[in-house]
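Query form — protein Branched-chain amino acid ABC transporter substrate-binding protein

QUESTION: What is the three-dimensional structure of this chain?
INPUT:
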Amino acid sequence: MLILTTVLTTGALTLTACGSRDNKGGDKAGGTTTVVIGVDAPLTGQNSATGLGIQYGVQIAVDDANKKNLVPGVKFKVSALDDKANPASGQQNATKFVADKNVLGVVGPLNSGVATQMQQVFDTAGLVEISPSNTAPELTQGKNWQTAKSRDYKTYFRTATTDALQGGFAADYAYNTLKKKKVFLVDDKQTYGAGLAKLFKANFVKAGGKIAQEDHVSTGDTDFSSLVTKIKNSGADLVYYGGQYDESEKLTKQLKDAGVKIPLFGGDGMFSDTYIQTAGKTSEGDLATSVGVPVTTLPAAKQFIADYKAKKYPGDYGTYGGYSYDAATAIIKAIGNVVKDGKVPSDARTKIVDEVQKTKFDGIAGPVAFDQYGDTTNKQLTVYQVVSGKWKAVKSGTYNAG
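ANSWER: The structure tokens for Branched-chain amino acid ABC transporter substrate-binding protein are given below.
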């Protein structure tokens, strides 16, 4: 989306560096080798509640690895960089991670649009990247994924399933369960939002539904009065929104305040407690799909949730916290197969990518493994609805996009 110069001075690097570097490419500290797990996410501003959930999901995984001494001779540290949900910032952060030889893996980003500007940087350097939240299908399967799938970046993986399934899952629920027949379609013109809305539309129409009208908003918009009027006059019985909670939480409030008592339905970008906190009572009855099943229902995630709460970490762990923990764990396990007795081989990054591809373990958010495109093999999705001021899971399952 944006092109920027990626030449950095050494003064721009703010990542961990402890002691003196050994000739194998690791920093020694107290008889152990320091290995850094990078995190890229929006930590301030737009989407920050979800981004912070990613950061601290990784932090807990790293703390657990160090406590259990999962990789003898290695001490893990987290370096989190703020991309502000901005593609250019994400690309700059990717370059910083690549430049620090201590970084052997990165978790993130949150936004699919940011990922498009990071993938090439990581792939050229052979540095593994696992997103816990990107859902745009083209990131793993190429621009022509619907007709001819191709994997363009060997180093890119994700623990979240794609919009190819999420859009259809939402459309099926809207038409067959909610019995909605006429939808007003809105998106934020971003890679994730526009792509998800397009897939919802295709599947909703295929099921027999009609699109009353389509419109777009811009990220950062706060006044939706004109859009509200269009929706009110369209005769739609549902609004489907492709985008993040920052705009949809304001749209739904303005919609209901104007007397338009129809639900707003969105994707995982909308699934955040912040949405309900901002929209208040007007969010009642609204819906969102998200990847996986509710982390609060998974026995394996019980300790993770307890730790997150005990440490009083900011952000929302419920959306991608578990997937972030699992993404970091996949990287840590891969490092353990490559780094022996604290010695980091010169080709460690390349070997770690190969190890991640072979990943297979039971994570706290479900089974963790990747197919030939780097996509998760865990295809579970859930529809949530705001009931009495809280997100309530109303349906979990999978969707056959074929």
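ADDITIONAL NOTE: Residues 1-25 have pLDDT under 50 and may be disordered.
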